Amino acid sequence: MKVLLIFGLVAVALADVTRFEGDKVLRLKPVLNEHVKVIRELANSVQLDFWTPESAEQVTVGISVDIRVPAMYLDMAFTVLQQSGMQLDVFIDDVQEAVDRQIENKGSPRAHSYTKYNTWSEIESWMNSMATSNSDMISKEVIGNTYEGRPMVVLKIGKKSGSTKPAIFMDCGFHAREWISHAFCQWFVNEAVTTYGSDSQITSLLDQMDVFVLPVFNVDGYVFSHTSNRMWRKTRSRNAGTSCLGTDPNRNFNAGWCTIGASTNPCSETYCGTAPESEIESKNLADFIRKNKSIIKAYITIHSYSQLLLFPYSYTYDLAADHDELLEVAKGASSALRSLYGTVYTSGPGAPTIYPAAGGSDDWAYDLGVKYSYTLELRDEGQYGFLLPESQIKPTCRRTSIKMRNCQDPCQLGSSVPAPSPSNLSTISCPYPWIQGTTRHVSSLCLTECQDECKQ
């Protein structure tokens, strides 16, 4: 009887795990308005999972469209799309196989590592350990609990000081399925702590500034993406009048809320919620930034997958008041990335660069007064989408490094500096000032490609 009970429990557990056998991810290239219409009509007829852009409404002529098509709808989708004459390629042939390949060494003991996708319990233990073992550099603060009661933990990194220091805020994991984002924030914390004292610029920066890091914003969604549905994107809150769960947290901030590029349908992946900050996770983050508004000088939110560096605005095509400076900083950072190893990052304001999307956290932070607000979309380079294998975490860390640098007075935007290269990266003055402090130093956040900086 006990054996039957165990088998029954296992069967129930397996039944609750969403599988993707036979699902394919198709890459489409609409070049006519008719193609856009076909994609939108198909999305209204069958269940499609938009990877990029994030919804059918955001599909426009000329952009690349990645959609996951469930196996049961493939024949219909292929027929409709091929009849339209639209360019169509199979991006991922079997989604479940890609999911299975993403996590490697499944039979090995899986303690926390900077080169694997850690579970929430592993990340939570890691945060406690980092704060305990680096008490002179890291402090931990719970800024609130999620809908399901899990803590939202911010790590404050910086040399302890008797005075209040200016700060940078960085978060990862808004969208549950973007696992490389969560991995990156963990790597970044380790990078900052382990290079302090040996890297003069990191040391100078952390002596004069603090960095707030929220490694996992959407904790409930992240847990669910590990245990039940790898493709889960939203939060896990209940919505009145429907069985559809969750809200897109990056549509839930008071920045043109729900006016464009967002949905009022709770079943949509871009559902904006019932009001700005209706999600407890959004409110917790907003409350923390509002409370620390006087010291937070830059806000960076990490997403995937597109290799983009975006800044306000996404909820309108109007240019931000600081557009020219934001663009110059972004272009300089993107140029540095390309100069070092050829990685191409596209930079610009969100709406015209990719598509309009209201309610984003970066737009909200900018409107609050955090001038240097950016969204960094990490790679895939075109093979895996959200399912970047664990073997690619280390190369991603090596190739996309957010490097905190402290620049002296002569470093001004537009000043003459040598082109970055692997040989001069450690000595070059940073030409991208982000935060003007009260001292003679200009603190900056530079995006660079660093060949050997991913610490395991």
Comma- or semicolon-separated keywords:
single chain, 456 residues, alpha/beta, Alpha-Beta Plaits, Aminopeptidase, 2 domains, 8-stranded mixed beta sheet, 4-stranded antiparallel beta sheet, 32% helix, disordered N terminus, CARBOXYPEPT_ZN_2, zinc, signal, protease
Notes on the structure:
- The chain has 456 residues and is α/β, with parallel strands linked by helices.
- The chain has 2 domains: 19-102, 2-Layer Sandwich (Alpha-Beta Plaits); 120-226 and 271-448, 3-Layer(aba) Sandwich (Aminopeptidase).
- It has helices spanning 2-15, 33-45, 74-84, 95-102, 120-133, 179-195, 200-208, 219-227, 280-291, 323-341, 350-353, 361-368, 393-399; strands at 24-29, 49-52, 65-69, 87-92, 138-145, 151-157, 167-172, 210-214, 296-304, 308-311, 346-349, 372-378, 401-407, 433-436, 442-448.
- The chain has an 8-stranded mixed beta sheet with strand order 5-6-8-7-9-12-10-11, with helices on both faces. The protein has a 4-stranded antiparallel beta sheet with strand order 2-3-1-4, with helices on one face. Strands 13-15-14 form a 3-stranded antiparallel beta sheet.
Examine the coordinates and then state which fold CATH places here, giving the name of the CATH topology of the largest domain.
Aminopeptidase
Q: Return the CATH class of the largest domain.
A: Alpha Beta
Low-confidence stretches: 1-15, 402-456
Strand arrangement across the biggest beta sheet: 5-6-8-7-9-12-10-11
Shape: globular
Number of strands: 15
CATH superfamily caption of the largest domain: Zn peptidases
Order of secondary-structure elements: HEHEEHEHHEEEHHEHHEEHEHHEHEEE
The overall number of domains is: 2
**Gross CATH architecture of the largest domain:** 3-Layer(aba) Sandwich
- Portion of residues in beta strands equals 15-25%
Mean pLDDT: 84
End-to-end Cα distance, whole Å, is: 47 Å
Q: Briefly note the structural class of the backbone.
A: alpha/beta
Q: What is the CA-atom radius of gyration, in angstroms? A: 22 Å
Percentage of helical residues?
A: 25-40%
User: What's the number of helices?
Assistant: 13
The description of the largest β-sheet is: 8 strands, mixed
GO biological process, one term: proteolysis
Family: Belongs to the peptidase M14 family.
Pfam family, one: Propep_M14
Keywords: Carboxypeptidase, Disulfide bond, Hydrolase, Metal-binding, Metalloprotease, Protease, Signal, Zinc
